[in-house]
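Board notes (copied after class):
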Amino acid sequence: MVDSRRESSETLRNKCAACFRQYNRMEHLVEHMKVSYHSVHEPKCGVCRKHCRSFESLREHLIGPLPKVECARVFSVRGCSICLNIFDSNATVRYHRAACQYSRAAPQMPRGGITGRAVALACKMVGGGSDGSMDLCAKVCLIGEDEHIIFQTYVKPILPVTNYRYEVTGIRPEYLRDAMPLKVAQRRIQEILCNGEPLWKLRPRSYGRAKILVGHGLDHDLERLGLEYPAFMIRDTAKYPPLVKTSKLSNSLKYLTQAYLGYDIHTGIQDPYEDCVAAMRLYIRMRSQAHPRDYNSGSGEAQNNYPAWRQRELERMSPEELLALSASDYYCWCLDY
């Protein structure tokens, strides 16, 4: 009986302070911490404080097909299904949700000045090639953090259009007849993004006047526009680890908007302005996460302070001390503040 209690106590000591996995030996817990990249930036359950790799993992933990029973019980009464936070009472949740849930309406204006450090970009594509499957940029939109339009235009594709995809894009041939040439649109967008700052001068965490570029599936949009922009200046909601599926695949912008902003998009003809607004709102929500400021985050394995020469010291640490040494393997958008 004593031996059994000793084993139980030892296993408990080897329990990860973030994801609660238990290990028979402390050295196994240390190996887990080396590769897990737990950090203060991971989504956490407001009931049991378990760290989850993404908000989708947290959503499954709280309201999935097989939720944690106690956490699901508390969340059903005091939880917000949009931001997944837990509040003091059901009345507090109702008051909070009115502010947490966005309206589809946005302050669209013909033109606006560039406000804030970020701009969102979205494109709508028509089809080229013999079967109309080749994406050609036909409309582009950029907005600022205030959701006002900075730049919006139809773009004349450099190849013949064989499918206007009208049911989705709403674009007709006459809209592109006198549209802005692609080269001119490229130059205008580059000027807005760089904001007078030479691209070669840009450095991580020191952007100067250049703008952070926000969007969903930006690799594809930039490729179709023929533009290049530094990866450390891009915030893509299709690639951001806290927003991906539990299988590490991208969620659609439609799903992310419904799940984390609380309204529907793409209910008819799709407007790039609507996509810009959704991506910007998601970015601002993720940027506003109330995380402790950990400026070592996002540099990957080099920042995980578990070198082999410290192995004996690490095995004597508590799970909480091991967690304090761990850094995220992605750049948390809260650090943009």
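Comment from the instructor: The first helix runs from residue 2 to 13. The chain is about 35% helix and 10% strand.
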